[in-house]
Amino acid sequence: MFERLSEQGFIRVGSRRFKIGKRLFEEMKIYSPCQELKKYKNPLLIVHGSNDSKVSYKDTLDCFNALSNSSKRFELIEGSEHGFHEEPYESKVVDMIVKFFSN
């Protein structure tokens, strides 16, 4: 994987073949999403697929539980992989996000 990253300047991931470049890997060494989310105090929705092979459910839940945000909400999408690219997961997540921002 890192050989392709060095040669091509990016790698492709997921069913949609999303390009991830060197810069993202460099930023991943610097930033901690959970630490950044601890600073966020507005309404927050975290959605996680139960079959996510990219991000650990435990890590996501541990981060969620560490947040002091009183307007946080966690939703687990049973059966979904990372990215919610298949139906019915995609529609379920889109509906959930629309409702979240409509309130």
Provide the fold topology.
Elements: H1 2-8, E1 10-13, E2 18-21, H2 22-30, H3 33-37, E3 44-49, H4 57-66, E4 72-77, H5 89-102
Parallel strand pairs: 3-4
Antiparallel strand pairs: 1-2
GO biological process, one term: proteolysis
GO molecular function: serine-type peptidase activity
Domain Peptidase S9 prolyl oligopeptidase catalytic: 23-102
Radius of gyration (CA) equals 16 Å
Q: Could you tell me how far the N terminus lies from the C terminus, measured between alpha carbons in angstroms?
A: 42 Å
**Domain module count:** 2
Shape: globular
Please tally the helical runs, counting DSSP H or I stretches of 4 or more residues: 5
Strand content: 15-25%
Quantity of strands, as a count: 4
How is the biggest beta sheet arranged? Answer: 2 strands, antiparallel
Order of helices and strands: HEEHHEHEH
- The low-pLDDT segments are none
Mean pLDDT: 90
Q: By helix and strand content, what is the structural category?
A: alpha+beta
Strand order, biggest sheet?
1-2
Summarize the structure.
It comes from Candidatus Woesebacteria bacterium GW2011_GWA1_39_21b. GO terms for molecular function: serine-type peptidase activity. The chain folds into 2 domains: 1-31, no CATH class; 33-103, no CATH class.
